[in-house]
Amino acid sequence: MTLDDLQPRQRAEIVSVDWDMLAPDEGKRLRALGIDAGARVAIAHRGIFAGRDPIALMVGRMTVALRRAHARAMTVMTL
User: Do residues 28 and 79 make contact, with C-beta atoms less than 8 angstroms apart?
Assistant: First the structure.
């Protein structure tokens, strides 16, 4: 399952990230925020418009806005 398939408030762990799907500078920013394999995450809420962008992602005690295209690059395992 990818991160964009996760239901709100459902907790998961990022198993892998397909860094080739992301631009190098985007990948670097996500790693700096702690969004990488092994991170425990949950979706706080989704955008209200048609694309449901952005996704508010909880990483530890931090909430980060993330595009669905970035979330599709991440494989997660529910906890």
Answer: no
CATH of 3-78, one of 3.30.70.260, 3.40.50.300, 3.20.20.60, 2.30.30.90: 2.30.30.90
Distance CA(44)–CA(29), nearest Å, equals 20
Domain ranges of the chain: 3-78
pLDDT, tens digit, for every residue of 32-49?
Answer: 999 999 999 999 998 887
Return the percentage of the chain with pLDDT > 90, whole number: 71
The pTM score is 0.86
What is the spatial order of strands in the sheet that 55-59 belongs to?
A: 62-66, 55-59, 40-46, 11-17, 74-78
